[in-house]
Amino acid sequence: MKIFKLKNIFATTFCCLFVFVAQCRISPYPDDNKVRTVNKRPGAFYSDDLAEQNLMRAMQLIDSTIACYFANDEMLMSRYYNPFTKTCSEETGSVWMYTAAIESVNAVMNCLKTFRDKGRHELYDKNFETYSDLLHRLYKNADYYLGTFTLTSYTQTKEWSVYGVNRGKRKGKAKVEGIENVYDDQMWLVRELIEAYKLTGKGEYLDKAEYLTEYVLDGWDCTRLPSGEEAGGITWGPGYVSKHSCSNGPMISPLVWLHELYKDKKDEIEYRFIDASDKKTRKTQQMKKSDFYLDFAKKIYSWQKKYLLRADGVYDDMMGGCSPGKPTIESIEGISYKCGIVCRDRVGPAITYNSGTMLSGAADLYRATENKMYLDDAKSLSEASFSYFAKLGATINDYYSYSSRGFNNWFNGVLMRGYFDIYPVYHEVNKCLESFQRNLDYGYDNFFYSGFLPNNLLTGWRQNESNNRVEAMFNFAFAAEYAILSQYLIEINTSIPLKYPPSTAETNQPPH
């Protein structure tokens, strides 16, 4: 305990110093001629160039979060930090939370490349390598979540090295058996690893992404129904039988990206499946990678749309009421395989990210296939999700509120990414993107404090300072949103007109 307290004292001192230095060095306007004065917060960044302002704020939030949550060179990440009491939690973040850091760094790097490609080199030249180095450190130290186990699936028994929910004490020694790893955690990592490869060209990112993709697709229920069709769907993890939106939808876009990477190549991959006629013989065949990945993206999209799309146009959480009620092994001709799983009940609630991944998936599948069905689906889902999740005036007049309960701050960012992905072919989502821009700016302009934003962007901090702990993944999520919105603005070469109501900072800030 004494060691941990000393670590906290060191981390707090370093965090405060880091944030002060970061805030002092980021402004490119030393004469302050271009700084806005609306609700100006100490240490905050303002500019008349909204795209640049978004990017600078994204980097500021990342820098603060890295400084205050990560304790050492092994990138040990605390789950919570309170910017008022300057204390970290003893609880460490899960691999999903850790991946949010990688996501935010990728988002900033993507934005920096967009600035460069539009002829604005200065920010790219100053910052890209710094964040590329940070990305690599995060990737290497993700190995503390890595572990190895043997899994019997629907078509084979194989040893896998995958990422566990919780961090281990040594690299490669995390617990990953049974419910200790889940497929969606691997999927979020696959998404970011492919992004990292496209940003840096480093083959190790693509290699790991494809390895994890193989593991995830090994979880696809390829057992045959009486009709001869595959049962379909991927369970939450190898230790579960329920089939979730979050363990299917997130994989669609990465599969399309892999298809695009291999589209003009002859690389092949082994496809494992069950014979449709006798419904038991396990077979393999070689396929072109580009075809294999695209076919699986279509299959997963089709399964989730069939089973989890609600009448009101958004997606439910999971398929439950499953038989068998737990993972079960059967023997066929003396070889062990996992039994197929049939789930009867669609279970809610609807959560933003489950619609967001399908929206991004539809956008990517439309780009890859030019099948108008995906565009029509994306248009319908864009309108339905905004109508369902965005509540105008629920908290502040003329502002759309999104739930911030539980993990919704991160979930909401996945939905916003979906709007960004479909914008090139459906401009009507600009109203959705504007709602996120305005909420972020309202929270930043009124409540930005020591490099952090509150959990609720529209209501601010709690009066009791000790109750203001912030999830690391939320500050990373806000950073990623700012970076994506910056990329959106620079790509369309325009600005979103913003309205600023009177500041509520005086009444909603904790006492100092």
Global geometry: globular
Assign a percent range to the helix content: 40-55%
Question: What strand line-up does the widest sheet have?
Answer: 2-1-14
Write the element-wise H/E pattern from the N-terminal end onward.
HHEEHHEEHHEHEEHEEEEHHEEHHEHH
Show unreliable segments.
Answer: 1-14, 16-37, 495-512
CATH topology: Glycosyltransferase
Main sheet?
Answer: 3 strands, antiparallel
Strand residue percentage? 5-15%
pLDDT averaged over residues:
91
Structural class by SSE content: mainly alpha
Distance between the termini: 29 Å
CATH architecture: Alpha/alpha barrel
Radius of gyration: 23 Å
Number of helices: 14
Count of distinct structural domains: 1
| CATH class value | Mainly Alpha
Counting DSSP E segments of at least 2 residues, the number of strands comes to 14
Question: How would you describe this protein?
Answer:
The protein has 512 residues and is mainly alpha-helical. It has one domain: Glycosyltransferase. Helix content is 48%, strand content 12%. It contains 14 helices and 14 strands. The protein has helices at 2-25, 50-69, 95-117, 122-141, 183-200, 203-217, 252-262, 289-308, 352-369, 372-389, 408-422, 430-447, 472-492, 505-508; strands at 80-82, 87-88, 146-152, 157-163, 243-244, 268-274, 282-288, 318-323, 329-332, 335-338, 342-347, 391-392, 400-401, 470-471. The strands form six sheets. Strands 2-1-14 form a three-stranded antiparallel β-sheet. A three-stranded antiparallel β-sheet has the order 5-8-11, with no helix packed on it. Strands 3-4 form a two-stranded antiparallel ribbon. Strand 1 and strand 2 form a beta hairpin. The longest helix has 24 residues, at 2-25. The protein is globular and about 70 Å long.
